[in-house]
What we know:
Elements: E1 3-6, H1 10-22, H2 25-31, E2 33-37, H3 60-71, H4 80-83, H5 92-111, E3 116-120, E4 124-130, E5 133-138, E6 141-146, E7 148-151, E8 155-157, E9 169-172, H6 173-176, H7 179-189, E10 196-199, H8 203-213, E11 224-228, H9 239-244, H10 269-280, E12 286-290, H11 298-302, E13 307-310, E14 314-316, H12 324-327, E15 364-365, E16 370-372, E17 378-384, H13 410-427
Parallel strand pairs: 1-2, 1-7, 2-3, 7-17, 9-13, 10-11, 10-13, 11-12
Antiparallel strand pairs: 4-5, 5-6, 8-14, 15-16, 16-17
Amino acid sequence: MSTVLVGGGPAASGLLTAAARTGALDALLDDGLTVVDAGPAARFGSGRLGGYLVRSDTRARVFAECAAPALGGRDTPDGLLARCESDEPVPLRLAAALLAAAGRRVLRRVRADPRAAVRSGTEVTGLRAGPDGVTLRVAGQPPIRADRVVLTVGGRPWTPPDLPAGGRLVLHSDQVLREDGYRRALAQLAGAVPRVTVVGGSHSAFAVAGLLLRAPVRWAPGAITVAHRSPVLVTYPDGAAARAEGLQFGADQVCPATGMVHRFGGLRADAAGLYQRVRRGTESRVRLVRVPAGWDWFADVARDDPVVVAATGYASAATGLLDCGARGGCGALGDDGALGDGRGLGDGGGLGDGRARRDGGGAWWDGEGRLRTACGDLVPQVFGLGLGTRRPRGPRTGGEPAFQGAIDGVWFYQNVVAPEVLSLVLSGGSLG
């Protein structure tokens, strides 16, 4: 059965690395393997991670651990691996460079094999799955036929369609954390009273606030509002550290594997530091406002702020590729919330927060790497991993039992999810 792997980020690289590490790469190659990536080959393994202007929400050595297997333990010529051997956060641009170095090495191994093909700079625009296989539409090229497909195309920023903007500039946090969106926000603030409302309480919300505080803007006290629906939590290494901060917590908020408090649901690194400073009153330029569901609060909280940032998570980019004919006639399943305060796995790297959302067309991921229609029917031989594929906490993941969001992160994709999806692919979709 021929396999097509679509995508070029850490999840795609992680699947190939897991296959090589477990001895399953030959099984994929024997059947015929095609890697299709919309980005350049030089960026394979990092995807769009290098475009972020902020630091990771996890330790640098997590990225080193992810890259080392593909690099064979050898450092890169510019010392990237050594530079990421640290317990401190790392600029995501540096992490992306390391992951790309590892990804290029994996891709070269695949490209050199006569049983494989690599098509970089190739955009998949749709797919149709049926009993005879999967057909992928490709921009400007003939369709690709395959027996099975693995989608690792990430998430697309999701902004609530009913957010009452009222003429304000609305940007998603993913935009503001990149150069173009950051400059658009600053341009909108020029000549106006500099005030911003950030909707959401995730890592991205506080990353946006922290980035804006470093901008050449004279922020007045309370000029940046973080409006959050769920309580803001912080990750603590153990119960003693949490109690030292005056936190009261139950057993269901402690990871049984590590003893960490709010391991999955809490803020980390720079985001946690900013929140703690605001909470203690040492950072007056940011104010926290707890808001209810819906939007009745918006006009009073956002006032006449010229910029609103929606730190409201991501929908799966993969589900939007599914042709209408394959979705079934069950009707759409709408997006699942107004604020999207679901948080991702901090010890996985990147920003990865926001609960995975069901696509407006009805397709959704079932939490095991399988795609389903709005009716709940399996889309045959289509599998997925990465941001937006809705991986919940379970017996194999660890983490606090109280956590209800989707787990995301580079380490998690490569070390936990990729081997599971690989088993699904090679078994024809059976969970055993």
